[in-house]
Amino acid sequence: MAMQFYASPEQIMRDRSEYARKGIARGRSVVVLTYGGGVLFVAENPSANPSTALRKVGEIYDRIGFAAVGRYNEFESLRAAGVRLADLRGYSYDRRDVTGRALANAYAQTLGAIFTDSSKPYEVEICVAQVGAAPDQDELYRLTYDGSVQVEPGVVTMGGQAEAISGGLRQRHRPDVGLEEALRLAVQALGSVGGEGGAPRTLTADQLEVAVLDRTRRGRAFRRITGAALTALLEAAAETAAAEAPAEAPADQAAAEEPSTGAAADAVPEATTPDAAPESSPTTPEESSADGEA
Amino acid sequence: MFTTPATSSFTEFLGLAAPDLLPGRRPLPPGSADIAPHATTIIAIVAAEGVVMAGDRRATMGNLIASRDIEKVHPADEYSLIGIAGTAGIGIEMIRLFQVELEHYEKIEGAVLSLDGKANRLASLIRNNLGAALQGLAVVPLFAGYDLDAVDPSKAGRIFSFDVAGGVYEETGFDGIGSGSLFAKSALKKRYRPGLSVDEAVTLAVEALYDAADDDTATGGPDLTRRIYPVVTTASAAGTHRLTDAEAAAVAEAVVARRMENPGG
């Protein structure tokens, strides 16, 4: 029999966290954000082709959606568990009694138990989003591999380079933006990392998985945007961005300078410079690629 | 329990997680009694663009009217309709279970069941209720929908009927269930022709329900004084639609006005 070495609980937990984080960091990112008409999910998913899709975004219940990054088999089983829990609760009580908060709690319990009890933690990070009657009533929960829950106002980014993505996105995001603008922000944020030499990438419709929880829809609010509809929406977003680019630049700077009156006065100029660069550059590659297709 | 890999059927999951919530699994005392309200006539008609299903609003208990405004026809999902006749409580519960069953499959699998798949699923729910049916709590549904896989769009509207033992039968043209269905089907037999538009089928459905109410005490006619009209739903390529109260009122009032001149229709 092999000799057992002593490992402190701290060391074991650290190892597990590191293991889970490494697994998550390998995947591509997902952005969830609220906009005027609901909640938008945008996942960078190379297998987004609808017939063969291994989906990262899914419907849980009437007003609740799910997004995940990490190991597919693990988050898929969590998604199915969420659907079962929600359907059971809605069937035995009422459809209105299924809430994102209860679901986030259940996920937290499950992930926490798996993290401490099983030999390997889940390498996943998930977001439970519930759309409300107005943007300030939307609830976005971010759950990590160890079962911790965070309520995030407006924007959730997950995946390998979540930190890098979220910085600029958080600053530019306003809860009342339209769908096109929200999609443009999300796609731009996803493309801002992973390019060669730090250059922004242009993501096309077949690399993206997009869905919304539509605030105005009665009953089941979840709706996927795929195929021609997605391509059209991306083009429209690129066009408005190109049209508004000259007018928008000063407005963006003003918006970015507002928080600079707060505590982190010297941090803001640093943040605005990388923001200002992708602001103008991604519109040009998108236009040129559209020209190339035509 | 929620994370154990299971089927994509909500009913089978309920059987594992909460079997007491399944209508067919309850122990029943021996003997049969007429203890619960009965829901009555439902009819469905195939139209050129889809299918129409309509039901009257009456539930009875023996010789009494238990409800004047019960709703027995509901959309099952985005492209199909379900109506029930028989013990109202179990029927309504079965509609809810069937709606969740279809939605659950759709969410877990990321794909919609075929129309035949939905009908077979419903048949198995009815089959599970056989014990209760033998003790007097029988439920029989009528199922109709727009078949998204149909090659010919004019044949996409389809109707399925069931028996208490779980048999499923596809019907051509039209069908009816419940105590007044005998009269409603007789009326439809004379008036139905293939290729009706949805609007014509809606009028025909309300006419047939009027004829059922004319001869069957357990079927309610359009109640003009209380403004209670039949529930009329349609399923087409655009999805399911329930006629609003104003739309149903317009059709029902026109039918009643014609009967003022010609009571036999």
Explained architecture:
The complex is a heterodimer of chains A (294) and B (265). Chain A is α+β, with helices and mostly antiparallel strands and 294 residues long. Chain A has one domain (13-234): Glutamine Phosphoribosylpyrophosphate, subunit 1, domain 1 (4-Layer Sandwich). Chain A contains 8 helices and 10 strands. Chain A has helices spanning 9-25, 72-92, 100-117, 162-172, 179-191, 227-257, 267-280, 283-293; strands at 30-35, 38-44, 57-61, 64-70, 124-130, 139-143, 149-151, 155-158, 208-214, 222-225. In chain A, the strands form 2 sheets. Chain A has a 5-stranded antiparallel sheet with strand order 8-1-2-9-10. Chain A has a 5-stranded antiparallel sheet with strand order 3-4-5-6-7. In chain A, strand 5 and strand 6 (139-143) form a beta hairpin. In chain A, helix 4 (162-172) runs antiparallel to helix 5 and helix 6 runs antiparallel to helix 7 (267-280). The longest helix of chain A is centred in the last third of the chain and has 31 residues, at 227-257. Chain A is globular, with a radius of gyration of 20 Å. The N and C termini of chain A lie far apart (68 Å). Chain B is α+β, with helices and mostly antiparallel strands and 265 residues long. Chain B has one domain (37-261): Aminohydrolase, N-terminal nucleophile (Ntn) domain (Glutamine Phosphoribosylpyrophosphate, subunit 1, domain 1), CATH 3.60.20. In chain B, 36% of the residues lie in helices and 25% in strands. In chain B, the strands form 2 sheets. In chain B, strands 1, 4, 5, 6, 7, 8, 9 and 10 form an 8-stranded antiparallel sheet that branches. In chain B, strand 2 (42-46) and strand 3 form a beta hairpin. The radius of gyration of chain B is 18 Å and the shape is globular. In chain B, 49% of the residues are buried. The model of chain B has no long low-confidence stretch (mean pLDDT 92). At the A-B interface, strand 3 and helix 2 of A face helix 1 and helix 2 of B.
